[in-house]
């Protein structure tokens, strides 16, 4: 199977890190097609950047999604998830959504850690949309300096302390570590906390594989049916592929 | 005061209808500055179009928001609301969010009516984000043909029947009629139902005025603080105005 | 427009402070008609006093509500709100309800601060009735001595510390400061906290104005329709005005 | 033990029906002291009447509560429940609250039936305050003519049909029949429905007895601690008994 | 009346402690029939033991439930509660469920204290099934050594400190102390905390008595109707008594 | 990988149907080890049978779980799920839980269909424990005769009609068809409904595979840590394997 990994950030180094994590998580036979937005925020960290990245991500789907079996949204805000799910001919999962579902399937309530004080409320909204708030043991922030987004290794200690606090006082039985920026650090942190740490990219890959294996029918009614033919103005023609109505 | 009404659809006729409704609702001294997206969907009716419209709406804010006192999102999906709220230097309200808050302030649970079967789930998400689900008496759909979006007068009877069902069986004590497409029909429908019908544009105008009157401080921390200086790639330079950090 | 401000406490000095705040928040052309209960608790701070004040507040509505355009309940427990809303011919808002709605319209979750340990649970009930609990970042108490209710200036430092704790640890993005006792202190506290502080009286005034501007129809069915003709025993005749059934 | 049954309606015939039901439900040794409000609504059926009755009910507690072991609020809106619970030296239960708790202890979700379209939203608020909404299978209305409130026997067929609908379509596994007006009809209706029907007065009596048996300590902190000494203006002196602070 | 107290632990000393507490709580005329599981965990403290105990508890019901008027589940995980409630011909209450309902009927939100870090999540599930989560002020753990389960007196200080923290910071207005292991300590702890402490066995006894007094009809439809005739394989024949279908 | 499929029913024919569905859903290289309870209910359809089956399922885990990579609970009540998850050294998923999570990952709200009026409330409890109630579009029952449990083909028409009702009126965007009894019918029904139909066994297999791929650490604290050494009385010695404390 081919899994399209869409990085809505315009930083190719992040895509590479996500791709490496995805390959390590994927089973043999899964090809990871990782693409990077060509315009938009360097690193999505605000609501405004989230909005600016969405359209570009839909375009990436139009360009690359045609022969893929599943799509993974490789932005920890699950940017554009509902639109991509509606428009793609195949299953789509968000990395944070995937991590939360996987954590819940492991049992108990999960703790959630995200980078940056500004992002706390954005992640809160992401979590509420997923719908598993009664399983949230606590949500914490790891403060990050701009350089940490490119090399977060220096903050492993802080992440571990935050994680242990969620376990000891919040009684979290699993942890979700959000932020594409953390991709690649999971193993090091996991070794120091007593509950499973779920990485969004890894969870996204295995759940995307699971949905492909399930061979679900595509809904033909409802808000996730393929969008019907619609009229667009001044947008790249490639988007037309997504609005062909009942495609065969 | 100047109220920037942002229509994310690229159909200028819709902007005109919204502007007329807004002017009728506004008090003397409120200037309505209504702008239309120059690229994007003709009429936003799917999740994908919602995503495609968001970035253009942020650009409209960057271009026109500088000297405005409040912003009204004139798309019934409250498209881009959280991003616009973060980026704007002034209060921002969404038309559906405004209608729901106003309905709740009138007392009792509200019924919600939206156009189009495909949009039911999209509106559900909009309602859940607002956070007043315990006040939702029921959500119904009015099926619409494409031409109805430009001239919905023919479907007033259907809307009234749907509304009465929500009142009689759902025990709704107020009604929110969503969809920019319905702008202008509120009076005719109101005359035939026994509970207050709240129009999104009108509610948005009066609540935006209220927030301006309140003169709230701008948060300098949290997810609705103004976005700090950030690096964008390949986007219109005007967007830079929104990322100047702590502006004075 | 005429806004009837009903103080259910029998302390006229509180009415004066509320009136001053209301006038400062009101737009030109809004007349504030502030009335004080002539019997009942000096300061409502318990559930029992709340109950004892309600009937007197309904009587004040019967006496003064005839030619008003909106009513503001100037007790931070939103005392009698649902009854006043049913009985009044015009929109009615509670000061705490108004502050919570306004805070949510500014974006993010709000922190709530109220005076007195005994009142914590009473405010909890007030908040739950409003229905925006998923937006509550945290609820805190400021302990008060009896004299503080008449001159709360001395406790500004405590309020600020409590507010900063809600912002830093609860991640509140706005604050609601409840208690008619705090009326007049908002500006001083606001200057020392990094998120908007919403004052109940001010929010109540601007939202009441907004609802009047909206010109909503009065429901003729449901639990907020005007009460029909009913039989009362041993109560002041003026209350009869509220039970005239379908008044014209 | 002595159980004070407070009827907030001024209709003595209703008190008599409640007293008879209470005696039938009480165990030997429980004395039912039933009192009727001397001023207020003839029959509480609106929010306004609810507000007008509350103060009078608190006065009844002050007059008659001194040597009672528990209090039962015999109004199906649980009128003044939180105030009476704060002010009384002994346990207090509301008849609807009691019925809902008892229904849940029998297992499964309950259906709720109340009289009068106007009251639907009032009962909704009562149910939400109780906090067991996830156990609500459905809420229905039985329309009533004024004379039905005094002699509801004629509407047994309608109640039964409503009840069966809640069982068959709402999958209710128990039923709460609210309204003091229905006191005395439970047996007749029960014989015709396949799930337990819980009467508020009977449930209130047995749960009040249970709380007395439990001999709970009185909270000395929090919002249900006895109200401290407070200053009242122009109210009957008997109310002073409720505000003596830490009574021995 | 005869109250069957089922201890799913195989430790007879625990049954004796529960029986003593039950007798102290019961009113004259209530006979406590206390039975102990003959196979299963010595002390149920994990999810696995919970599962292993359930079938044995159903067998105890089949053996002893025939002439009882009510059943009390004397395991603080409310082990097997829903099955026993379905199978028993009479009302069934769980000790933790009973304590939570009783606490809520006393007013305000309750704090919950349970023994053992491992059990925190198990109690969380128990609480969520009860359905009164909006009334939960906080949930805390008292760490216990194995010997504490047989003689918990030494940890009274720790329980009191935990309780006071729930009152002071969580604003709990009542406390539920879970764990059959704590049976008998309630009085000593109560004397040192300022809000009512509800003991599960005592609450279970008084609520079971209340339900018997209520004389509820047995549902003949729904998931708590008596189980119809069913085919079992390799189980003790006494269980057949529970599957006789519509028994007379 | 080896996937242990535990059928808690004692009907081997059901195990065979589940095994066939599991094999069809599994990817190459996944071995399905399907085991059947040797004592207990023939078909689990009541709460009591659920309780009677649990201990036997734990024994099956003790006997067969040692060299498995994941466990699938093949009873649609997710019988014993939390205990098996605690006790197993590997990931455990319930078939209904898996179907619900998979449905939510496909987007939108799901409809739920289960067999038998008696089971409605049992499934409701199963759904509430999963924690995705805000995504539940509706829950319906398909009435079944005893013979249908062995050959449900005859009721495909009824299931389809029920499913279409959930789609058309409940606006379900996916469907979960619960009940091991339906195993094998999914394809036939799917062909006649316009939204994806998720089969519990198939979803359980693909999600179990996903969790194995994720290689999650085993929690060593919390309520899903492996149970420590505990003392059992009169139970099969094989259970001792599950209580060895920190196993290597």
Gross geometry of chain A = globular
The N- to C-terminal Cα distance of chain A equals 20 Å
Which structural class fits the helix and strand makeup of chain A?
Answer: alpha/beta
Taking pLDDT < 50 over at least 5 consecutive residues as the criterion, the unreliable ranges of chain A are none
Bin the helical content of chain A: 25-40%
Count up the domains of chain A: 2
Work out the strand percent of chain A: 15-25%
What name does CATH use for the topology of the largest domain in chain A?
Rossmann fold
Summarize the biggest pleated sheet of chain A: 4 strands, parallel
The average pLDDT of chain A is 93
Report the C-alpha radius of gyration of chain A, rounded: 18 Å
| Largest protein-protein interface | A-B, 53 and 53 residues
* Series of H and E elements of chain A: EHEEHEHEHEHEHEHEHE
Strand order of the largest sheet of chain A: 2-1-4-5
Report the oligomer.
homohexamer
The CATH class of the largest domain in chain A is identified as Alpha Beta
């Amino acid at each position: 199977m081919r899994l399209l990994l869409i990085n809505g950030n315009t930083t190719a180094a992040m895509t590479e890190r996500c791709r490496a994590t995805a390959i390590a998580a994927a089973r043999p036979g899964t090809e990871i097609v990782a693409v990077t937005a060509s315009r938009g925020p360097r690193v999505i960290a605000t609501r405004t950047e989230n909005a600016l990245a969405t359209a570009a991500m839909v375009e990436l789907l139009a360009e690359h999604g045609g022969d893929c079996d599943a799509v993974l949204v490789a932005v920890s805000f699950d940017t554009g998830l509902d639109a991509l799910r509606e428009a793609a001919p195949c299953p789509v999962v968000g990395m944070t959504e995937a991590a939360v579902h996987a954590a819940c399937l492991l049992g108990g309530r999960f703790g959630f850690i995200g980078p940056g004080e500004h992002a706390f409320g954005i992640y809160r909204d992401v979590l509420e949309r997923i719908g598993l708030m009664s399983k949230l043991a606590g949500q914490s922030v790891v403060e990050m300096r701009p350089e940490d987004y490119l090399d977060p290794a220096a903050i492993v200690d802080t992440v571990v302390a935050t994680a242990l606090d969620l376990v000891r006082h919040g009684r979290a039985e699993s942890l979700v570590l959000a932020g594409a920026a953390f991709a690649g650090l999971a193993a090091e942190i996991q070794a120091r906390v007593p509950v499973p740490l779920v990485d969004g990219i890894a969870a996204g890959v295995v759940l995307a594989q699971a949905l492909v294996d399930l061979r679900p029918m595509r809904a033909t009614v409802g808000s996730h049916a393929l969008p019907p033919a619609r009229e667009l103005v001044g947008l790249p023609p490639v988007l037309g592929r997504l609005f062909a109505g009942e495609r065969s």
